[in-house]
């Protein structure tokens, strides 16, 4: 029997010293021993990497930008499958088995988990429900759904476009244009609702929807990123 494909878990971080240790523990628990953890820091202060005491974790530094950091991790990955994980996202149990099974399907090109939040308010639950419905219709998951893809396929597609926002959307739009299958698992990741709570859940959801619509109508990612940062500060 051939060995199971090795998974490289790539975690782009920027000032995530508080979340990175429990994130690593969750990956170890849910992905087993046949996985590699790569943390790519886009910050120059080194606080996130300094918080990591597990010497099995690969620590990298790159210029800031989630797409740039994820591509850097992918270039250094030794695994057969790439799993892109946000530091504040918790994987479900046996995530490695779920990923390998999903990618064994003949037509599967890439996949992601169902979106869930670590907050049980009705508003947050509604946002998660709408996000899941959108994702299953469009087959375009977002980065906080723990995207996974064979490494060879990722590189054949050219990796993430190195733009400041919507890199995950453009990446999956490329897959859709090629008429490839995107698998959305029924199992959920648990993502922190901190950004929604800080901005206001409905306001944050509306902002994200507006940015997505503007992107669809051809507004450049640089302009969208500037709008996102402005709204985030306000």
Assigned CATH class: Alpha Beta
How would you state the average pLDDT, rounded?
93
Going across the major beta sheet, what is the strand order?
3-2-1-4-7
CATH topology: Spore Coat Polysaccharide Biosynthesis Protein SpsA, Chain A
What class do helices, strands and sheet pairing give? alpha/beta
CATH homology superfamily name: Spore Coat Polysaccharide Biosynthesis Protein SpsA, Chain A
Helical content band: 40-55%
Continuous helix count: 10
| Amount of beta strand | 15-25%
CATH architecture: Alpha-Beta Complex
3D architecture notes:
By secondary structure, the chain is α/β, with parallel strands linked by helices. The chain has a single domain (7-197), classed as Spore Coat Polysaccharide Biosynthesis Protein SpsA, Chain A, CATH 3.90.550.10. 47% of the residues lie in helices and 19% in strands. It contains ten helices and nine strands. The chain has helices spanning 17-31, 47-50, 66-76, 95-104, 122-138, 151-156, 167-177, 194-199, 201-216, 221-233, and strands spanning 7-13, 35-41, 58-61, 81-84, 89-90, 108-114, 147-150, 181-188, 190-191. It has a five-stranded mixed sheet with strand order 3-2-1-4-7, with helices on both faces. Strands 5-9 form a two-stranded antiparallel ribbon. Helix 9 (201-216) runs antiparallel to helix 10. The longest helix is centred in the middle third of the chain and has 17 residues, at 122-138. The chain is globular. The termini are far apart.
